[in-house]
Amino acid sequence: MSTHAPLSGKVALITGASKGIGAATALELASLGAKVVINYSTNSEPANALVDKIGSSNAIAIKADASSIPEIERLVKETVDAFGGIDILIPNAGVMYNMDLESTTEEAWDRTMAVNVKGPYFLVQKAVPHMNPGSHIILLSTSLCAVSVITPNYLLYVHSKGAIEQMVRVLAKDLGRKGIVVNGVAPGPTGTELFYQGKSEQLVKQIASTNPFNKIGEPEQIARALAFLSGGDGKGGVWVNGQIVRVNGGMTVGAN
After folding, report:
1. Mean pLDDT of all residues in the chain?
2. Which UniProt keywords apply (predicted)?
3. Cα–Cα distances in Å, from 176 out to 86, 163, 168, 170, 210?
4. Structural domain contains residue 254
């Protein structure tokens, strides 16, 4: 644990936190002094390994379906029971089906909207009563919502993330009255296990070429942006609220 601990005494709840961006964020927030709740849906091994790495006094793993309201309620209750409240909320759990309009099934649509939209919506609802002024909520979108050259197979995914971006804008106005800051982070292509799955080396290089640095982002880079928006600057956060921060190394630029 770092001796510089701007998030000391803060409690962070992160869904989908056992792998990828979620895991990197858990480690980053813990390194800044936060106590971290690592939510996972199926495999306990990565979550428990993360707890071991952070330390059991500063992290717990909770299995819960982040798309189910009863499970969300239990997740929030167990977090509050363990650590007394919630200061940082990051609904990171998500799914992505590569489906265009013609190939989209009702089952895939329902699952996408349940995990990517319903889950974050009701997690915020259930967590807010346990969040004090000065708390931070960061929702996860995607930079695909802002690219001009987008292939049809991303329709279902960006459809759900568009809803997240509108949630950020309205919740920032609503919860700002309670002193709670709401922002969104929209990563570009990021080198997670999920990203590389099913992609050829040629395709990865092609995707990297859309970035001026000619590279794929790293989960740790996204995690640092999430930490900054969580108040990790050590000064209670900056004057940023209701914004979608596109963390993609310049893959998209300008107004969105």
Report:
1. 94
2. NADP, Oxidoreductase
3. 16, 19, 11, 10, 36
4. no
Closest among 245, 251, 195 to 219, alpha carbons compared = 195
Residue 4 lies in a domain: no
For 12, the 3-state DSSP assignment is strand
Q: What's the pLDDT tens digit per position in 110-165?
A: 999 999 999 999 999 999 999 999 999 999 999 999 988 899 999 999 999 999 99
- Other CB atoms within 10 Å distance of the CB of residue 58: 15
pTM, to two decimals: 0.95
Q: Check the CA dihedral 203-207-208-212 and report its sign.
A: positive
Q: Beta-strand (E) ranges in the chain?
A: 11-14, 35-40, 59-63, 88-90, 136-140, 181-187, 244-247
* Count of the separate structural domains present in the chain: 1
Q: For residues 33 and 155, give the distance between their C-alpha atoms in angstroms, rounded to a whole number.
A: 39
125's CB contacts (< 8 A; 6+ apart) are none
Distance in angstroms (rounded) separating the CA atoms of residues 218 and 42: 24
Question: Could you please report the per-residue DSSP string of 221-250?
Answer: HHHHHHHIIIIITTTS--S--S-EEEESTT
With vertex at residue 252, the alpha carbon angle to CA 246 and CA 256, rounded to the nearest 5 degrees, is 70
Q: Which candidate, 95, 98, 25, places its Cα nearest to that of 66?
A: 95
Residue 191 pLDDT greater than 70, yes or no: yes
What pLDDT score was predicted for residue 233?
A: 77
Task: Establish if 29 belongs to a structural domain.
Answer: yes
CB 222 within 8 A of CB 184: no
Domain that holds residue 194: 11-244
CATH number at residue 212: 3.40.50.720
